[in-house]
Each structure stands twice: as structure tokens, then as C-alpha cells.
């Protein structure tokens, strides 16, 4: 029985890496029919595959298009398995991250990749989308009791608004409670320090480690 479970987990992982979103649905159904843990299927199968895809992206063997297709396959599998999660798994407390592209910028592919990798790592993501007003980041972070605000910008003309979010957090008395993480094409470590952000992430994969470090996980 354990050998069969291991075999199916490896196939689920492989389907994510190979971007097989149709085949993965049938595999996920077969996995459940054998009575195996849905949580194991997600974490040891689907998430394992997404982590491998992320590594291939880091090594420049995969590019953005491939990584997004891998995520499609992962989510196709999750849609099958999620209904079989134990109540304990469904109700587990997760760290919350509010993420979005700063006001004036509509480039969201990088933000979407970061979202995928953070979700894969187990964070609860509140995605505000693109061209998000600076005040909305703070309002939602307060409402959702979020741990981190993750800001993205691919334009030098809008990146300065990231500092506005930090200033609003200070005025609202939330700066000590909410960490601010930034990233995007023109963003640098020096810029993050200059505006008072807590952290800077260069890549989507690195964002996971940065977020965990911020929360001492």
C-alpha cells in the first residue's frame, strides 16, 4: 500500500513539473479512491512538484510561461483534493499576506509568480491585483489582520509609492504590526532600505524564504 501511495505522489509531482493539467485530475482522483491522505497528496505530491518547477525556474531551465503552466496543473490537482481535507487541515491558522501591484502599474506577472510560490509554501494570500491604491493595502491589511504587505512595481515612475504605503502604516499605528516586503524589476536592496521596507526579494522563489525569515518561521 505504501509503495502505491509513494508511486502516486511521485506521479502527481511529475505531472506538475511536466504541466499535465488534464492527466493530474485523473491521478488525483485515483489517489483519493485508494483512501490516501488529501493533505499528503497536496504537500508531498503537488507542492513538491511546484517546488521542483520553482527550482527549474531559478536555474533558468524554465521561464515564466512554464512556471505558470506548472501552477495551472498544481491548482487542477488541488481542486480535486481540497474537498477531502480533514477539518483540522482546513481550519489550520495560516500567516496572511496582502499582495498587489502598486498604484499606476498594471504589470502583474511577477506578482502572480510570487503569489503562487507563497501559496505553495502555505501562506494565505489576499491578492489585491494590479494598479492598487496605496491606502487599500493598509485598509485590507488591517481588516484581515495580515502579517505582511507584499508590494510589486515594474516601473520606476510608480515605485516611489511603495514608501507611501509605509508612511500610512506609520500614521495608522500599524507599522510595528505589519511587515512590508517589496520587489520588482527596478527595485533594489538599497531602495528597500531607503524607504524603510522590512525586506526585498529579487525572485519569486526567494520571496518564500524572505517571508519566512520576516516571521521567524
From TrEMBL:
InterPro entries on file: Cbl-bd_cap, Cobalamin-bd, Cobalamin-bd_sf, Met_Synthase/Corrinoid, Meth_synthase_dom
Statement: the UniProt record of this protein carries the keyword Methyltransferase: yes
A Pfam cross-reference name: B12-binding
Extent of the signal sequence: none
GO BP of this protein: homocysteine metabolic process; methylation; tetrahydrofolate metabolic process
Keyword set, alphabetical order: Cobalt, Metal-binding, Methyltransferase, Transferase
SMART domains: B12-binding_2 (SM01018)
Ranges where the B12-binding N-terminal domain occurs: 1-93
GO cellular component: cytosol
Coiled-coil portions: none
Domain B12-binding, residue spans: 94-217
SUPFAM superfamilies: Cobalamin (vitamin B12)-binding domain (SSF52242), Methionine synthase domain (SSF47644)
GO MF annotation list: cobalamin binding; metal ion binding; methionine synthase activity
Domain of life of the organism encoding this protein: Bacteria
PANTHER family: METHIONINE SYNTHASE (PTHR45833:SF1)
Family the UniProt entry places it in: Belongs to the methylamine corrinoid protein family.
Protein name: Methylmalonyl-CoA mutase C-terminal domain-containing protein/methyltransferase cognate corrinoid proteins
Organism: Peptostreptococcus russellii
Amino acid at each position: 500500500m505504501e509503495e502505491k501511495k509513494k508511486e502516486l505522489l511521485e506521479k502527481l509531482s511529475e505531472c506538475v513539473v511536466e504541466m499535465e493539467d488534464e492527466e493530474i485530475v485523473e491521478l488525483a482522483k485515483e489517489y483519493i479512491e485508494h483512501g490516501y491522505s488529501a493533505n499528503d497528496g497536496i504537500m508531498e505530491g503537488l507542492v513538491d512538484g511546484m517546488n521542483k518547477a520553482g527550482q527549474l525556474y531559478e536555474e533558468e531551465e524554465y521561464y515564466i510561461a512554464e512556471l505558470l503552466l506548472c501552477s495551472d496543473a498544481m491548482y487542477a490537482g488541488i481542486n480535486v483534493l481540497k474537498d477531502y481535507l480533514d477539518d483540522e487541515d482546513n481550519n489550520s491558522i495560516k500567516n496572511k499576506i496582502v499582495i498587489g501591484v502598486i498604484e499606476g502599474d498594471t504589470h502583474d506577472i511577477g506578482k502572480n509568480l510570487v503569489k503562487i510560490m507563497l501559496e505553495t509554501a502555505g501562506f494565505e494570500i489576499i491578492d489585491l491585483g494590479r494598479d492598487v491604491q496605496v491606502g487599500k493595502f493598509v485598509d485590507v491589511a488591517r481588516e484581515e489582520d495580515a502579517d505582511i504587505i507584499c508590494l510589486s512595481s515594474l516601473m520606476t515612475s510608480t515605485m516611489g509609492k511603495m514608501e507611501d504605503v509605509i508612511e500610512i502604516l506609520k500614521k495608522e499605528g500599524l507599522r510595528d504590526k505589519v511587515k512590508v516586503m517589496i520587489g520588482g524589476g527596478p527595485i533594489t536592496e538599497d531602495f528597500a532600505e531607503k524607504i524603510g521596507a522590512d525586506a526585498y526579494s529579487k525572485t519569486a522563489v526567494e520571496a518564500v524564504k524572505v517571508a519566512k525569515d520576516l516571521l521567524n518561521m
